[in-house]
């Protein structure tokens, strides 16, 4: 029995239509974690879809109540062949964002998997149902061909990722022993290009906060008082202008990362430039001496998510009392998260903006993570993916967006390697979410090859 047999096995799984049937069954669960009415479905996804499949694969499963009352249930499973073998941890989330049913293209229904041309449409296909389905199917194929995996595997499936993974970090801290493993290999997010595998080893962090300037009680007539009363919107705009310049370059020294080393630069330089995708990248935006890919994968970015003063829908002739901007910093490792807001405070004070208040948002904080590109697991996965597909994968030091990778990297202390099975145009979090059949088929082969290889010896 050979590696090729395992690849043929997943190929048959895809070609024979079983893959479609399985994905359709997962998509049919209306697991909108943002919709409290669907709370019972979150548990059903685990008990009715995941547990039977995992048990058939030889996992022992445990369902856990989320330690945070705002979070859905969490499933863990373990399949131990021999405690002396390496243990892989994998992860998925079964919840999806709101269906947005009315906005889907004519003929498409979010919870009914629909094949059209080279695409499979359905809410949660790309994010994240196809991703954990592919990994489970690849494990099944290796097991079917070899009769054993050759390694141990553990799994965590959460049902609250789309509401910020409440309770997940706490759960991980309380279940370190249960989840003890050698590496995390999991899937979420898009490939950089559909016809080539992508690996990423961490994520940018993010922190959101309000900047508020509240000067007085109520608005005052702009004729009678204009020139006499300070305008909060103007002052807040200047405060923001002190944070970053007119092309978005960050001016706060502590917000400028020191982690863009030659290694990371070299890794980023091999990535394709976002070409042809909408919208077009603004070449004259962001840190001047960096390439666009360095700006998004290797640097921090500051954004104003929303901004108000007065009543924008119905302006009146008055000096507003208050101005507010909701801001966000996306940051890479090498930025001290605990100093992000204190550094901002110091900076605003130094520039005369002592009156501007900073208030951090609850549940909008993600730590940044990044695995050293020299970690042996990176090379190992890269070699395996290259062997299966005949081409080197794109390797991102970290995803530009965020995901709860700190739970694995920091709390469990694992090297983390993510192999995404979707693509940039998949409309995740939007109407008409879909996956590409060709990417699914390729990913099934890549993962079967990878799990086959790990069974012959880990790094
Ligand atoms: Zn998502």
UniProtKB/TrEMBL annotation:
Pfam families in UniProt: Peptidase_M20
Alphabetical keyword list: Hydrolase, Metal-binding, Protease
Key word Protease present: yes
InterPro entries reported in the protein's UniProt record: Cyt/Met_Dipeptidase (IPR051458), Peptidase_M20 (IPR002933)
Hydrolase keyword on record: yes
PANTHER family for this protein: BETA-ALA-HIS DIPEPTIDASE, SUCCINYL-DIAMINOPIMELATE DESUCCINYLASE
The name this protein goes by in its record: M20 family metallopeptidase
